[in-house]
Amino acid sequence: MPHWTALVAEKKQRQLESIPQEWIVTPPSDSTLDVSAFPETCGLLNAREIEITNTPVNVLLEKLACAAWTAVDVNCLTEIFVDRALVRAAELDDYLKNTGKVVGPLHGLPISLKDLLCIEGLETTIGYVSWIGQYADKNAVLVDVLIECGAVPFVRTNVPQTLAWPESFNNVFGRTTNPYNRSLTSGGSSGGEGALVALKGSPLGVGSDLGGSVRIPSAFCGLYGLRPSYGRVPFYGARGTLEGQDSVLPVFGPMTNSVAGVKVFMKAVVNAKPWLKDSLAVRKKWDEDEYNLVDHGSGKDLCFAIMWDDGVVVPHPPIRRSLEIVKAGLQKAGHNVVDWKPIKHRLLGEITRDIWNAASAEDFMITTSVTGEPIIATMELDDADAAVASFRPQNGGITAYQLWQVQKLRQDIRKEYLDHWEATACETGTGRPVDAIICPAAPFAATPHGKNRYVDYTIVWNALDYPAAVFPVTTVDSTLDGKAPPHAFYDDFDKDIYEMYDPEKFKNAPVCLQLVGRTLEEEAVIRMTEIVDAALLAAK
Amino acid sequence: MPHWTALVAEKKQRQLESIPQEWIVTPPSDSTLDVSAFPETCGLLNAREIEITNTPVNVLLEKLACAAWTAVDVNCLTEIFVDRALVRAAELDDYLKNTGKVVGPLHGLPISLKDLLCIEGLETTIGYVSWIGQYADKNAVLVDVLIECGAVPFVRTNVPQTLAWPESFNNVFGRTTNPYNRSLTSGGSSGGEGALVALKGSPLGVGSDLGGSVRIPSAFCGLYGLRPSYGRVPFYGARGTLEGQDSVLPVFGPMTNSVAGVKVFMKAVVNAKPWLKDSLAVRKKWDEDEYNLVDHGSGKDLCFAIMWDDGVVVPHPPIRRSLEIVKAGLQKAGHNVVDWKPIKHRLLGEITRDIWNAASAEDFMITTSVTGEPIIATMELDDADAAVASFRPQNGGITAYQLWQVQKLRQDIRKEYLDHWEATACETGTGRPVDAIICPAAPFAATPHGKNRYVDYTIVWNALDYPAAVFPVTTVDSTLDGKAPPHAFYDDFDKDIYEMYDPEKFKNAPVCLQLVGRTLEEEAVIRMTEIVDAALLAAK
């Protein structure tokens, strides 16, 4: 076995060769932090191509596939297979020309995939050096479904080693930065998708979400993203982390520049009957009644609940301001807004980590020991070596009996949370319980590298299996978002997060929020996100 | 803490006192094996009451609640609360009188419940001495749902200690026998329900099924029963075994004397939106399209696959004969019948036991150690003491990491089995994959006590999460079901099962089969069971 660094060098060389030569551009200088406009200014794209990359998914789908990847920062990509994609695009063009019909609802849509969705003949490393050279002999189920729907996968995108970080750095492909401010993280674990889609390098990307990995990079990069319920989108055939864990499950979800794109993706995938290809996919058709909010008063006079903080970490000023913007917009649009009282969020976060950590160290060690690559213990820029040295996995994890006790506690809290939600019927004024919760996706906008240290604003909804959509509201504004006076801190950690805030440091970072619905209510969550989006637009 | 036998004596005394004095009858002599007609002949019931107890659920529901429990063998009961039931029945009568409306779709239906469905103010022991005296402070979710639907719970029924046996014997309530032949078991773990419903002591009972516990007693007692998919019927708030295990989950299902009763129960429960009360209940409405077999050619020219044996244990002659009866009946009704090729059934059984046994010994020991009651290690009549002495739980089970590896293997086999089913489309002649599998519920009819030693004909469908209905076909007939010549045995265990068969020993035992569908396709499974049932009736 060669040294792991030799494996990486060989892989990087192959990756470089997979980029068409004529697309290599000179990157902006290191001092340019905001590179979000670079695709339009680098000279690689003509006016028509720029128009295409700025077109939302639902509009784009009325055209044939003709866009190619435009990203300048290869660090957001892992596998590049534009050659295959162009062959497929040509096939689709021919099909349309010969039959006058589209192949499916995603006909011709270029689509980027997080680096865990196996594609026949390609490697899937999830950032592990040990998995370099492991070529998939079949597609993940979702890849098959997307291709049947007419989509054209063309690149895969970066992740953190193990997938179990909310930023995107690994020993194989390096680090993905935030296109709006390269001193900030693009989030994780679908951080490559976040950066690529924000740069208009892909109209729609597929991320996975075990604890926030679709929503955090969507929020940090200013995108729309959805974390569906377990099994609504097929997961089988992807590489994962903590494989065999049957409790808090990973799910795939779309990341894109419009809520219309989220809907197009979900409707196409669900209508493809994924339960005939993945035994964990839920047999539940796309439900137009649920999309039309039949269980929510047909969408008139909705009652949203705003969760201003989760009782553990108080959000930074830009997040608070974005909640106020949404509240005002919804009220202006005639909807009712109440406050959400979070219960047991701290415990839910702890329990979820206990479940994953039941055997995570063993899982990571067994994988990395093949090549001896170091297990990454921090996402910080500088002291990675020190952190690696200090990483000591738990010895052997816990027993199955201990795991069952934690899982039982989680079931009890899920029930308690459900009852808590149902009990809001008495305070909404609609006769129904709260229709959706609106809350931060994180207590901060995109953080400096290594500082995204609190992810329970997303994890709790994974633990409860509630679908949650991310939508953009504003960007950090140093005038409007000055540092707040100290509040009564919940604890030292809350104080640390408070002290991290500095309007200059977070400059230009997008600010997004989450809309949270009930289990398997994806249709309603999408519709309500459209309603919030329209209210924000109308209130501008 | 008193000695465990003292706790049992006190509990039995309280149980006896809960039986209305005027209902105590002299039981038949021990030499009377078939007691199935005893309720009609014991003199306790008048002609009208006998008529009522012989009425199927759908017809009964057109009348008001007026039947009371009629069982003669108290060993099938655990908790008896007829007084409460009569109060509730009177309330329902009043409601109907005053409003002209029924409370819900199960208005007035007396319903019996397996002894794990907690009811406020009652004990729930699942056969553990250690749980005597533990009174529930709230109803299980399903109990609430059933009461809201108008049903009247009136008794709870016997189970094996730990629930993890396919017969029904425990240290608290003793043993439940088969009403058609008391030398045989009524099965388990819902064996109390099996005996009670077969005796017409209840028109409909609720059992739970982790590995066959609804279907085995239904099959052994000649009933219709359904094992729904995970989460279709709410489970929360019941006591279970192996609590916190999140992988192969227990489900509740109906046991009754007609397939119409199965439908009435399922439709009522699903339409009650159980997902608003149980966070693990699937948000999926009762689907009339699925019931009308829209995905199965609207029910015309179906293609059934018969699994004659599972490749591990060859079924006894009466089971084989029942499969032939069904095949002939379906062909006569115009349906196509092909053979089902089982794959990996042995491995599926082993994996499922590995998952449950990851911590089962620890779970059982921790519970029984409170009182020191012995852990039961056999369901045999005679050598229970010896078996108890020889029971040595595994020491500490396995680690969480080991458990995840088994669970991962199971996910892979679920996918393989799904693909296997889909691939049958080329051999059905309908253009569709096989519509349903018909197979034994066990390789034998009800066995002598302690001899129900092979349950993988039911377990595999739990492991795959396929809904499965049991329906009666015939009874063991010593003339038609003579001993077969020895076949090429799969192994010594298969030979043991072969040698167990003796037409005299199994005399009068009901013979039932299973109809198996796809995950979350309960509506279609019920409709196809109706079709099979009608075909059997028509072919008689």
Automatic annotation (TrEMBL), chains A, B:
Name one molecular function that GO assigns to this entry: amidase activity
**Domain named Amidase: residues:** 71-525
Q: Which reaction does it catalyse?
A: a monocarboxylic acid amide + H2O = a monocarboxylate + NH4(+)
Identify the domain of life. Answer: Eukaryota
Q: Under which main EC class is this enzyme filed?
A: hydrolase
Q: Which residues form the active site?
A: K114, S189, S213
Keywords carried by this UniProt record: Hydrolase
One Pfam entry for this protein is Amidase
**E.C. number(s) listed in UniProt:** 3.5.1.4
Tell me which family the UniProt entry assigns to this protein: Belongs to the amidase family.
This protein's name? amidase
Q: Which organism is it from?
A: Suillus placidus
